[in-house]
Amino acid sequence: MIETAKESPYFDIINSFYGIGEVLTTELLGELGDITRFDNHKQLIAFCGLDPTIIQSGKSINVHGTISKRGNKYARWILFNISQMVVKLGHQCPNHPVYNYYLTKKAEGKHYYESLTACSTKILRMLYTMCKNNTTFKIN
């Protein structure tokens, strides 16, 4: 499976992300396919079911609801595992933007799983941008 995934032009780009190994890269490419087929990162996030639900009643609109879970549950599970790996390895790479984002969410008082879900969305946005621009992951 890994050998087949290595034929994808996005394998090296996604694999360069700190915390994502060959297995998770293969699984993610297997579920998402060609990441650049989406017009923007919001469509990709909706495809994975990580977009927030919008609850409307009269004039009140709650855009900060739970995730919709309408998308690909396997891609969501893979992204959650990637988030866990980045957080576990975060102390080894303190300048990692996703790890810093996790620490910010925890400081806001978010639950562990809520913070990891937010990190999954951030990782997906970063991977989409990296694949669109054909750049690898670099830590400043």
How many domains? The number is 1
Question: How many individual helices?
Answer: 7
Question: Roughly what fraction of the amino acids lie in strands?
Answer: under 5%
- The counted number of beta strands is 2
Structural class: mainly alpha
Helix % is 55-70%
Per the principal axes of the C-alpha atoms, what is the gross shape? globular
Radius of gyration, Cα only, in angstroms?
Answer: 15 Å
Sheet with the most strands, sense and barrel status: 2 strands, antiparallel
Summarize, please.
With about 140 residues, this protein is mainly alpha-helical. It has one domain (about 1-135). Helices cover about 55% and strands about 5% of the residues.
Task: Give a written overview of the molecule.
Helix 4 (41-48) packs across helix 7 (112-133), helix 5 (73-88) crosses helix 7 and helix 6 (97-107) runs antiparallel to helix 7. The mean pLDDT is 92. The chain is mainly α and 140 residues long. Strands 1-2 form a two-stranded antiparallel ribbon. It has helices at 2-5, 11-15, 22-32, 41-48, 73-88, 97-107, 112-133; strands spanning 55-57, 60-62. Helix content is 55%, strand content 4%. The chain is built from 7 helices and 2 strands; from the N terminus they run H-H-H-H-E-E-H-H-H. It has one domain. The chain starts with a helix and ends in a 7-residue tail after the last helix. Strand 1 (55-57) and strand 2 (60-62) form a beta hairpin. The protein is globular, with a radius of gyration of 15 Å.
